[in-house]
Amino acid sequence: MSAEDQARILNAGYLEYIRLGATHMLTGYDHLLFLFGVMFFLTRFSEIIKFITAFTIGHSITLVFATLFGITANYYLIDAVIALTVCYKAFDNLGGFQKHLQMKSPNLTWMVFAFGLIHGFGLSTRLQQLPLGDDGLVFKILSFNVGVEVGQIVALSIMLAVLMVWRKTASFERFSKASNVGLMLAGGLLLLMQLHGFQHTQYPDDFPLNRDDHQHTHEDMADKKAPLSSYPRRLELRGPSADTEGEEPAEQASEPEVHRHEDGEPHSH
C-alpha cells in the first residue's frame, strides 16, 4: 500500500474497507489467475461450490487472524509463493503429475484450502500496511474480508460466463493446453517480478541507485497503480486554533516528514 493509500484510509469507514477489499481482489492478478486455473475444467456446480468454499475458508482464516495478531512477513516473498500456486494449478491442469511424475494429483480440495491460507496471508500483509488503529479493528478486518468476497464473486461470475461460452466452441479443445501453458508462464513471470522486489528490500546496495532513491522509485510506481488511487481524499486541513487567532497559519505542508524505509536511516525529502 502506498503512502497516499495510507493517508486516505485514516478516516475511512467500514464501507470503504469493503470497497478496498473488493478493489484489491479485482486488481490482484495472482489471485485471479489462480482462481481461473481452478475453474478451468470445472463443469459441475457442486464442484465449483466445493472448491471455492475451501479457498474462501482458507484465505479468510489467515486474513483475519494474521491481521488481528499482527503476524506478517515480507510481502514480496509471500506474493512469490502465491505466484507458485498459479504455476502449480497450471501444471496440474496439464496433467503434469501423471505425465512427468508418474503419480496421481494431490487431493485438489485440500490443496485449494492450503493455497487459500497462503493467499489470505498475502492479503493480510497488504492490509497491515494501512494505519488500522485499535478502534473497531475487528470490524475493519471483517469489512475488508467481505470486500474480498464481493470482488471474488464478481471475478468468478465473469470467469464462469466466459468459460461456459468457450467450452461450447471447438477452440476450447484446441487451445485449452495452450491456455494453461500461458497460465504457467504468467505465474512464472509474476514469480520473477516478486523475487526481484524481494531482492530490492533485502539487498538494496546491490542495485545502481542508493537505498532511499531506489525505494522511492518503486513507491512512485506503486502510487500510480495503487488500487486506492481513485479514492476521494479524506484528510481535512485544520483551521486556526483559538490561541493562534490572528496569526498566519504555519505552512505545515511544506515541512518534510522524517521517515525511513525498512531498517534504513531516518531521513526526509
TrEMBL record:
Transmembrane segments: 20-42, 49-69, 75-95, 107-124, 144-166, 178-198
Basic and acidic residues compositional bias, start-end: 208-226, 256-269
Protein name: HupE/UreJ protein
Keyword list, A-Z: Membrane, Transmembrane, Transmembrane helix
Lineage top rank: taxon: Bacteria
Region annotation (Disordered) ranges: 206-269
